[in-house]
Amino acid sequence: MEEEVLEKLSSFVLSKEEEEEIVLSVEDVQISKKECQLSVLGKIIAYKSVHLGGLKAAMEIAWGFPKAFRVLEVGGGIYQFVFGNEMDVLRVINGGPWLHNNQLLILKR
Description:
Blueprint: H1 2-10, H2 16-19, H3 26-37, E1 39-45, H4 52-62, E2 70-75, E3 78-82, H5 86-94, E4 98-100, E5 103-108
Antiparallel strand pairs: 1-3, 1-5, 2-3, 4-5
């Protein structure tokens, strides 16, 4: 297994554009950090795919229309729920269990 991973990693080649340095401002980093602090990751235990818009609409209603609420698809069936304040995060984390279309939604800070 380890040899396979090393072999695949050795075949990766970056383009000239990908090798360029990316400079982030302090403000960008602070915004991203705050967004992560006000986020919850979730996974729906289901055999069918989830529609992102439907998930956002349903959870927005269930969670009382939190301010600045967003949902991002991270990948692998994992979603990032971003809130506008800490109170909403705590209320959602402590208020479960939560369901979406009768499927269990597991949340983790």
